[in-house]
Design a protein that fits this description.
Elements lengths: L2 H16 L3 H46 L1 H24 L15 H7 L4 H14 L5 H30 L6 H17 L2 H5 L2
């Protein structure tokens, strides 16, 4: 991989990782409700789960979906259903001290597994493999791109968690926190627009 291509890919990884999407909306809400420390497994689950997804796409899962488009569609709808479930959980979350809704942050495994049903993650993974992976030394380049994506992704998504934790003191009143959580849940539902509009 040339230096220019590597630089272009790092820029692609940064822009796609730091812009709003389901992962970042959930981390913003997690930062508000649980703080940075309790959200670390969620952040690591996103980055490492996404790295595994990129490797899987690079090693042939993308071709499987080209041959069996119904499988990809099924995964998209499963992802949409799971996003609706997560939006419902976020909307019902109360402050951790209150015990309201008995909310807990996503675990490492839950966040990693979510990447497999996250439409934005699939678009990012397929885009990275098809656009930035040279054919020569393909497997090495897939592993390099996956590792670089994880390195760029983790601090990028972490910024959303930090932003959420900084908002905590302004959201101490239960009614304001409830309104924020409902707003985050609605934004998560709105992130489903590309799936619904593509039907």
């Amino acid at each position: 991989m040339t230096f220019e291509l590597l630089l272009a890919f790092v820029l692609f990884a940064l822009v796609t990782s730091i812009t709003p999407g389901p992962n970042n909306m959930m981390l913003l809400a997690s930062g508000v409700n649980f703080g940075v420390r309790r959200s670390i497994p969620h952040m690591l689950g996103i980055s490492l789960g996404f790295m595994v997804l990129v490797i899987a796409v690079g090693l042939g899962l993308g071709q499987l979906f080209e041959r069996a488009p119904w499988l990809y569609q099924a995964l998209r709808y499963a992802g949409a259903a799971y996003l609706l479930y997560l939006a419902w959980k976020i909307a019902r979350a109360g402050a951790p001290e209150s015990g309201e809704g008995k909310a807990k942050p996503l675990t490492f495994i839950q966040a990693a597994a979510f990447q497999w049903v996250n439409p934005k993650a699939w678009i990012m993974a397929i885009g990275a493999i098809t656009t930035y992976t040279p054919h020569e030394g393909f497997i090495f380049n897939v592993l390099l791109i996956a590792a670089l994506f994880a390195l760029v992704n983790c601090p990028s998504v972490g910024l959303w968690t930090v932003a959420g934790s900084l908002l905590r003191r302004w959201l101490e009143r239960p009614a304001i926190l409830r309104a924020f959580n409902i707003g985050m849940a609605l934004l998560l539902v709105l992130s489903l627009y590309p799936i619904v509009s593509d039907v």
